[in-house]
Design a protein that fits this description.
By secondary structure, this protein is mainly α. It is 66% helix and 5% strand. A two-stranded antiparallel ribbon has the order 1-2.
Length: 102
């Protein structure tokens, strides 16, 4: 089918645009952290999709952990970035002048 190669091909422009958006908003900490999390989540979904399309998702990596579960790593990293922002950075930088990243 044409859908699998097209799906894999669409990863590149999607990630490219996400990186460009993150770069353009790099001085606004709230935007930067959310955009970095989005990049990681797109990467995780892309990896998961590729692993299923190329049929290596069921192969074991370690014990009962298969390759498709490695997508959890970027998902968790995205959550940790947002947790850092909401639990540590935002409460300490409440004024409008401190919203911008250093």
């Amino acid at each position: 089918m044409i859908w699998k190669p097209l799906g894999i091909l669409m990863i590149f422009p999607t990630l490219t645009i996400a990186v460009i958006i993150a770069w353009r908003t790099r001085r606004i900490m709230s935007e930067l952290t959310h955009n970095l999390a989005i990049i990681l989540w797109i990467s995780a979904n892309s990896y998961w999709m590729i692993s299923e399309f190329l049929h290596f998702d069921g192969y074991p990596v370690y014990g009962d952990i298969s390759y498709k579960y490695l997508a959890v790593i970027p998902f968790v990293l995205g959550i940790l970035i947002l947790a850092y922002y909401y639990l540590w950075y935002a409460p300490r930088h409440k004024s409008v002048s401190q919203v911008f990243a250093d």
